[in-house]
Amino acid sequence: MLSINHLWKGFNIGTEHELSVFKDFSFTVEKGTTVAILGPNGCGKSTMFNLISGSLDADAGELWLDDINLSKTKEKDRSRYIGKVSQDPSRGVAPTLTIEENLAFSLKKGKSLKMKKLLNKNEQREYFKEILKTLDLGLENQLQTEVRFLSGGQRQALSLLMATIVAPKLLLLDEHTAALDPKTSKLIMNMTKDLIEEKDMTTLMISHNLSDAVRFSDRIVMLNGGKVVLDIDSDSITEEELYSLYNKQIEDDIEFTV
């Protein structure tokens, strides 16, 4: 379970540009559930992800993942427990390395190992071919291809596979289909759903696609002003109802009770 307890985070504290994003913010996610995180720009979605992954430090409060105190864990070490896929298809991969090299590093994330030691097992290469074949993108025949030569969709599929190759305790999806065309976005979302179900991962998914939020999550949480303004089971609301609530929240900045 992910537990965020009494979290505080601000920027430019003590200056005229001071901005408080979270004030005494608490939030929990049950193990094995997928939660869609919605909200307008600036509501705190990405800041929350950065605090969880460790790329930002909280001013106060604690973050726990099962029995691990993330607040006292370095970002590099958190990567052993947390997988993340970003909006930019190039951010989750090393473009100048081959597909095989990227996958080899993802198997050992959070550890310092030399490339030679990573690539000396034929059975490992066969495993890579096997899991790449599940993507149905022909990548199993391109192990020695540098990732920079792949399409955006292929890179995002590889990034997703790398983030989950060793099933993380928590998967963070930061608008991971936003930069893709509709056809590729659908492919990646279905792939995401299959991987989450197969590995039984706890997942947070930032999305501006309300249809995906309803279809691919167990729970929908909307943030605004660093606060939870909507928290509801996904199967208890239609896409049309969610659109109405989302637009009303942006226009009126009111808190819902549903």
Task: Tag the structure with descriptive keywords.
258 residues, 10 strands, 4-stranded antiparallel β-sheet, Rossmann fold, disordered C terminus, 6-stranded mixed β-sheet, alpha/beta
Order of helices and strands: EEEHEEHEHHHHEHEHEEH
Count of DSSP strands: 10
The number of helices is: 9
Structural class: alpha/beta
The CATH topology assignment is: Rossmann fold
| Coarse shape | globular
Query: Which percent range fits the helix content?
Result: 25-40%
Compose a concise summary of this entry.
The chain is α/β, with parallel strands linked by helices and 258 residues long. The chain has helices spanning 45-53, 75-78, 99-107, 115-118, 122-133, 152-164, 182-199, 210-216, 239-252; strands at residues 2-11, 19-29, 34-38, 60-65, 68-69, 82-85, 170-174, 202-206, 219-224, 227-233.
Structure description:
The chain is an alpha/beta fold. The chain has a single domain, classed as 3-Layer(aba) Sandwich (Rossmann fold), CATH 3.40.50.300. The protein has helices spanning 45-53, 75-78, 99-107, 115-118, 122-133, 152-164, 182-199, 210-216, 239-252, and strands spanning 2-11, 19-29, 34-38, 60-65, 68-69, 82-85, 170-174, 202-206, 219-224, 227-233. The chain has a 6-stranded mixed beta sheet with strand order 6-7-8-3-9-10, sandwiched between helices. Strands 2-1-4-5 form a 4-stranded antiparallel beta sheet, with no helix packed on it.
